[in-house]
From TrEMBL:
Its cofactor is Zn(2+). Its EC number is 3.2.2.23, 4.2.99.18. Monomer. Coiled coil: none annotated. The lineage of its organism: Bacteria, Bacillati, Bacillota, Bacilli, Bacillales. Belongs to the FPG family. It catalyses: Hydrolysis of DNA containing ring-opened 7-methylguanine residues, releasing 2,6-diamino-4-hydroxy-5-(N-methyl)formamidopyrimidine; 2'-deoxyribonucleotide-(2'-deoxyribose 5'-phosphate)-2'-deoxyribonucleotide-DNA = a 3'-end 2'-deoxyribonucleotide-(2,3-dehydro-2,3-deoxyribose 5'-phosphate)-DNA + a 5'-end 5'-phospho-2'-deoxyribonucleoside-DNA + H(+). The keyword Signal does not apply. Residues 2-103 form the Formamidopyrimidine-DNA glycosylase catalytic domain. This is Formamidopyrimidine-DNA glycosylase.
């Protein structure tokens, strides 16, 4: 599932392609990907200009000049492609937004969605989300206030979007590896020094992942050489059986509350 670095990469690249352009037409291949029927969705979106594209946690927000907003969550298996009909992947398209310069294709939105919301509805939808981990307001003390008093397992808290927004399965494991702490540790067992190391690792891992384009395997457009560049830099996630880059011990995979969990049994004691 795309996480903060993947959606931030999409935001930056799409802003160059789509902001300031008018949505000339809309194609809807799967009504369940929307929150309103196709006819009013098309009527409110067609002819509108994309004023800006924002990210909040794992969502993208397309701000239209009408005051409406398109809220995107790709969920598991969702991705996008920008280009022409001749260039697009041979995949089923759930939604397509057309401009004179190109089209934005939404692919794999079986669990994901593209919802049309006014300002108040958008605010209500996003209200439960916790703070962004890379914002200046997320100081060490703010991090400690939100995390250190929690119960349960560390990974479960890292991926809880109401605690900290934007971290998912992949980056929770990468952050714990970087900090040298096993993600299955209980939060009450961690001391302040552990939380300080985790805070530093959150900044280090997420900033690096954004810099290298996240781990998404599909390029956003033909010639896109940024998207997915962090995949080869993942140290533990989806690396079961591979040698740890630090000590050579085989990376292990376990299950925690239905989630995959990857770690080095030697470096993360």
């Amino acid at each position: 599932m795309p996480e903060l670095p993947e959606m931030e990469t999409y935001r930056r690249l799409l802003a160059e392609q789509l902001v300031g352009r008018t949505l000339a037409d809309v194609y809807i291949g799967r009504e369940k990907s929307l929150n309103v029927p196709p006819e009013p969705f098309t009527r409110r979106v067609r002819g509108r200009t994309v004023n800006s594209i924002r990210r909040r946690a794992k969502h993208l927000i397309f701000d239209l000049d009408s005051g409406d907003h398109l809220l995107l969550h790709l969920m598991l298996g969702g991705w996008m492609f920008w280009g022409s009909e001749a260039d697009r992947p041979e995949r089923t398209i759930q939604v397509r937004l057309d401009t004179r310069e190109g089209s934005l294709y939404f692919i794999g939105l079986r669990l994901g969605y593209l919802h049309l919301l006014d300002a108040s509805a958008l605010e209500e939808r996003l209200q439960p989300l916790g703070p962004e981990p890379l914002q200046p307001a997320m100081s060490l003390e703010q991090w400690m206030n939100r995390m250190a008093g929690k119960r349960g397992r560390l990974k479960s808290q890292l991926v809880d979007q109401q605690v900290i927004a934007g971290i998912g399965n992949c980056y929770a494991d990468e952050i714990c590896y970087d900090a040298g702490i096993r993600p299955s540790r209980t939060c009450p067992s961690l001391v302040r020094q552990d939380w300080e190391r985790l805070y530093a690792s959150v900044q280090r891992v997420l900033l690096a992942a954004v810099r290298y384009g996240g781990y998404m395997e599909h390029p956003l457009y033909t010639g896109d050489r940024l998207t997915g560049g962090f995949d080869e830099r993942c140290q533990v996630y989806d690396r079961e059986g591979e040698p740890c880059a630090r000590c050579g011990t085989a990376i292990m995979k376990e299950s925690l509350s239905g989630r995959k969990l990857f770690y080095c049994p030697e470096c993360q004691r």
